[in-house]
Specification:
With 91 residues, the protein is an alpha+beta fold. 32% of the residues lie in helices and 25% in strands. The protein starts with a strand and ends in an 8-residue tail after the last strand.
């Protein structure tokens, strides 16, 4: 099964910011997105389900400060990126 990775315009803007200001983080995110297409519940970045979330929300470590947070919808074969900056909702 191959998943489709989707995200909002805000996520797209944050990706563009990382691409310019921190190419290493941008490359890491692109690798994560590739992994998410094949196996969203395993891989690099210390994958874990969120404890206060539901059975579809997961996170991966990007940097000490930043987390990739996403939902997995098996019935739609889709991964929706919720956040790529900050630690969950900390700002």
């Amino acid at each position: 099964m191959t998943y489709t990775v989707t995200f909002s315009e805000d996520i797209d803007k944050t990706l563009a910011k990382f691409r310019k200001s921190n190419p290493a983080v941008y490359k890491k995110l692109m690798n994560f997105f590739h992994e998410l297409r094949e196996h969203p519940r395993s891989g690099t970045g210390h994958v874990e389900p969120l404890l206060k979330g539901n059975s579809v929300t997961y996170s991966r470590v990007i940097t000490k400060k930043d987390r990739l947070v996403y939902d997995v919808y098996d019935d739609e074969e889709r991964v929706e990126i919720l956040q790529i900056e900050s630690h969950y909702d900390d700002k």
